[in-house]
Specification:
By secondary structure, this protein is mainly α. 51% of the residues lie in helices and 4% in strands. A hairpin with a 5-residue loop joins strand 1 and strand 2 (64-66).
Length: 143
């Protein structure tokens, strides 16, 4: 359902949000290594997330990426919309361009229910809720 790029962006945001030291800033290389992603990809994604005010960045020797307490309370759907756009919640389960309620694919009704539930979850889950299990060792960002 989500693109690989969007999954990388979500992992990067969770990594940044999981940083418990408020004075510390995470660099692109550090983030990319931890989430096992390309530095180039992570760099482009992080700049896009800064542009959408999901995270912040500072330049210079003590620069890097960080997230404020207010930003931690954003729903994860903001990341999804910034990277994949709203269409991710309207796509056909089989990838058909003309799938609709009037002209459904064989998976349409079942997939629509899953897709709608996923959109609701993304709208309700806050960034802070996703980083708490990581900080407590109950969830992981790498496999």
């Amino acid at each position: 359902m989500l693109s690989l790029t969007c999954k990388i962006a979500i992992k990067a945001v969770i990594y940044i949000a999981s940083n418990t030291d408020p004075d510390s800033r995470a660099g692109i290389k550090q983030i990319a290594e931890y989430i096992n992603a390309s530095e180039h990809t992570v760099g482009k994604l992080l700049q896009k997330l800064v542009k959408h005010s999901i995270i912040n960045s500072n330049k210079g020797p003590s620069g890097g990426f960080y997230i404020t307490a207010r930003q931690m309370e954003q729903p994860i759907i903001k990341v999804v919309l910034a990277i994949d756009g709203k269409d991710v919640f309207n796509q056909c389960g089989l990838g058909l361009a003309r799938c609709s309620a009037a002209h459904p694919c064989p998976l349409h009704n079942d997939y629509k229910a899953v897709r709608d539930l996923f959109e609701t979850m993304c709208s309700q889950k806050k960034i802070s809720e996703l980083c708490n299990p990581v900080n407590n060792g109950l969830a992981y960002l790498v496999g």
